[in-house]
Amino acid sequence: MRSSVFDCAILPLNKIHNRAGNITIVEGGGSIPFNVRRIYYLYDIPGGESRGGHAHKELYQLIVAASGSFDILLDDGVNKKSVTLNRPNYGLMVVPGIWRELLDFSSGAICLVLASEKYDENDYIREYQTFKNYNSNV
Ligand code: TYD
Questions:
Q1: Within its chain, how far is the Cα of 11 from the centroid?
Q2: Tell me, what's the pLDDT at 83?
Q3: 41 C-alpha vs ligand 1 centroid, how far in Å?
Q4: Which phi and psi angles does 53 have, rounded to 5°?
């Protein structure tokens, strides 16, 4: 079945308060509905730059603004949705089959991504028209 932007939810993550700061714990298969096989993070993003501009065929991701803020545009080929991430204890789960763009990064923003699979270039759809065709055939 075709993916929908409405399947991409903001998940509240736990936050343990401490006098000396906070800690948030994410457990694959526990607080998020997939196992984590890879973690990566974007940082030192120059002002005005955007990232993403692709979809994935199988990959699930949890995207967290570990520091600062940024916007994510989601597009399933029919509906679009814009989400702002600006707190480290909330994550956006992006399901497979969604075109995404990340933009409007604040200075010093860190975009932490927990991914369900290891890196595989074959899982990417990097051309928008290919994505539209792919999604209308699922
Ligand atoms: P890409 O996913 O296209 O970046 P973004 O969505 O943040 O704009 O990846 C950028 C480059 O980094 C691309 O050449 C592939 C490489 N890369 C890896 O080698 N391994 C990885 O896990 C990731 C996420 C990217």
A1: 11
A2: 98
A3: 10
A4: 75, 45
Catalytic residue among 51, 54, 81, 132: 54
Is the distance from the beta carbon of residue 33 to the nearest atom of ligand 1 less than 6 Å? Answer: no
User: CB count, 10 Å around CB of 126?
Assistant: 10
Rounded to the nearest angstrom, the gap between the alpha carbon of residue 40 and the centroid of all alpha carbons in its chain is 11
Q: pLDDT in tens for each of the 138 residues of the chain?
A: 789 999 999 999 999 999 999 999 999 888 899 999 999 999 999 999 999 999 999 999 999 999 999 999 999 999 999 999 999 999 999 999 999 999 999 999 999 999 999 999 999 999 999 999 998 877
Q: Are 30 and 36 in contact (CB under 8 A)?
A: no
Contact criterion met (CB below 8 Å) for 15 and 22 = yes
54 a catalytic residue: yes
123 lines ligand 1 (CB under 6 A): no
Among protein residues, the one with the nearest Cα to ligand 1's atom 13 is: 121
Q: Please report the domains of the chain, with CATH numbers, ordered by start residue.
A: 5-137 (2.60.120.10)
